[in-house]
Amino acid sequence: MRNWKSLLFVMMATMLVLAACGGDKKSSKSADNEFGLVKKGKLTYAASGVYKPFNFEEDGELTGFDMEIGAAIAEKMGLEPNPVTNPFETILQGLVANKYDAIIGSMAYTKKRAEQAAFTEPYYYSGGMIWVAKGNDEIKSPEDLKGKKIGVVSQSTYEEPAKTLSDDIQYYASDVVALQDLTIENRLDAVITADIVGFEAIDNGFEIKEVGNPLWVEQPSIAVHKDNEELRDAIDKALQEIIDDGTYEEISMKWFDRNLLDIDLEDAELLE
């Protein structure tokens, strides 16, 4: 009888210990996921790292407009910024797989992307534009691209419009490399990318020029996991705070000599 009571006591004690461990584990998990973050205390955000001047590597460090906006937002949230890189063509898949908390990498909002992620308010506006070599006088409008070789970044918002203009598409991992190829004879006829990126390339000595006006206006926004509305709302709040206190304009002026949110959207065709 005494042995039976001893065994029962041991079993009950074991169950209490397991229950206590389970409770601690649940509490720890909750603590480690404030705002739904992968690791407490850090905001891990991804970019391609090859989209100068928005996000690129310099002296072994990630820098650029996107990186500084991400750092400012993380600071407002009381978190440590932790930028990482991921190829743009799989960056959304990485978010879905919880490899990072957010994408702050010049990803424009589209209805299709919103099926896989939740998006904040735009943190800047840009226009999709056609670029050609400086000496190219044949291409003067989108209609002139029929049968021409167009360079675009795979899975970017420029891919589908390019397909409607030509059947000959050359894919790139970097817009900068595509723009460089414009200046090499018989490599490319045109590139479709953001107006800001093209003008930055010209400032860096690229012999290219724009064709007409932007085809549309994009709304680059911050993407988070589709079910993590708490994190999206917290980032939106922090974004508005850096806009209100002048931090946003300071960063924008540093990189572009203008505020990228200052745009007249009244007659603009927004990309959806």
UniProtKB/TrEMBL annotation:
It is found in: Cell envelope. InterPro entries: SBP_3_CS, Solute-binding_3/MltF_N. It comes from the Bacteria. Residues 42-259 form the Solute-binding protein family 3/N-terminal domain. Residues 1-19 form the signal peptide. Keywords: Signal. It holds the Pfam family SBP_bac_3. Belongs to the bacterial solute-binding protein 3 family. This is Transporter substrate-binding domain-containing protein. It comes from Sporosarcina quadrami.
